[in-house]
Amino acid sequence: MQASEQTPASASVDPAEIARFSAMAAEWWDPAGKFKPLHALNPVRLEFIRDRAEEQFGGENPLRGLRVLDIGCGGGLLCEPMARLGADITGLDPSQKNINIAATHAGEQELEINYLAATAEDLAAKGESFDLVLNMEVLEHVANIDHFLGACAALIRPGGMMVCATLNRTLKSFALAIISAEYILRWLPAGTHQWEKFVTPAELRDALERQGLSAHDLTGVSYNPLGGQWSLSTDTDVNYMLTARKD
Fold first, then answer.
1. Lower CB density within 10 Å: C or N end of the chain?
2. Are strands 229-233 and 114-117 parallel, antiparallel or unpaired?
3. CA-wise closest residue to 166 among 131, 123, 205
4. Cβ–Cβ < 8 Å for 128, 121
5. pTM
6. pLDDT at 179 over 90
C-alpha cells in the first residue's frame, strides 16, 4: 500500500468538486455517514463489474491478476473489495485527503493497494495502461468530459475495457437524485450534484465513440425504498452503468 504526496490539477478537474469531497474525507468508511448511499450501492456495482469482467476476460475469478485502475477512488470503497478478489489495483484521486484516508484504511486491513493523488491525465502522460478502468460516479463531477474521457481511453490497453457508472439528466433524476436525496432525505449534502452536469446514455455513448471506444451493456440501477436496497434494472432514468471497450 502506497500513497503519493502531491495533489494535482488538470483540465478535467473541477477544484470546487475536489474541495467538496475533501471536506467529507473523514467519513468515507462510516456506513451511516455522508457516503451511506455508496456503501449501499457497492454490492450492485461489484456484481456488474465482476460479471462484465468475466465476459471480457473469462476465468473462474476474472479479476485475479488483472491490472485495474479505479479513477476517483475516494476513500477506497471499491478498491478494497477489488484487492480481495485478486486484482492488482491502483486507486486514483485528485484529493490528497481522500488518498490519505484510503491508504490508512487499506493498511489497517493489510491490503496491498497502490494509491495515488493524481489525475487520469497524469497517468496517461506516463504511458500507463490497465486491463480494466473503473469510472464510477465520477463523470457527473468532471469539468470537461471529452478531455477526461480522452485520458481514460488512453489508459485502457487494447482488448481492455472501462466500466462507467453515472447519473442520467432527466426530470426524474432531478427529482430523485437532487431534490429527494439531498434536500428531503438528506442522504447527501446539499450541492453534492449539479443536474446540468449529468450525462445521458446517448451523450456518453457519443463521447466514448469520439475516443475510439465502443459502448455496451447499458444497465439501469434502481433503488427500492421499501426494502432499502439497490438492484440492476432496465430503468436508466436516474442511475445507470455501461462498459466501454477498446477493441
1. C
2. unpaired
3. 205
4. no
5. 0.89
6. yes
Residue matched to cell numbers 477506497: 76
| Distance from the Cα of residue 130 to its chain's centroid | 15
Q: Where are the beta strands (DSSP E) in 40-119?
A: 67-71, 88-93, 114-117
Question: Which triple of cell numbers denotes residue 94?
Answer: 485528485
CB-based contacts of 148-151 (< 8 A; 24+ apart in sequence) = 148/12, 148/120, 149/207, 149/208, 149/210, 149/211, 149/213, 150/211, 151/10, 151/12, 151/119, 151/120, 151/121, 151/123, 151/124
C-alpha cell at 63: 479479476
SS3 10: coil
Cell of 74: 475516494
What average pLDDT does the segment 70-99 reach?
96
Q: Is the Cβ–Cβ distance between 118 and 151 less than 8 Å?
A: no
Letter for the amino acid at 83?
A
Grid coordinates representing 33 are 455517514
Q: What nine digits make up the cell of 36?
A: 451511506
Structural contact between residues 222 and 233, judged by C-beta atoms closer than 8 angstroms? yes
| Collapsed DSSP state (helix, strand, coil) of residue 158 | strand
Closest C-alpha to 21, from 193, 244, 172: 193
Band (pLDDT 50/70/90 cuts) for residue 9 is: low
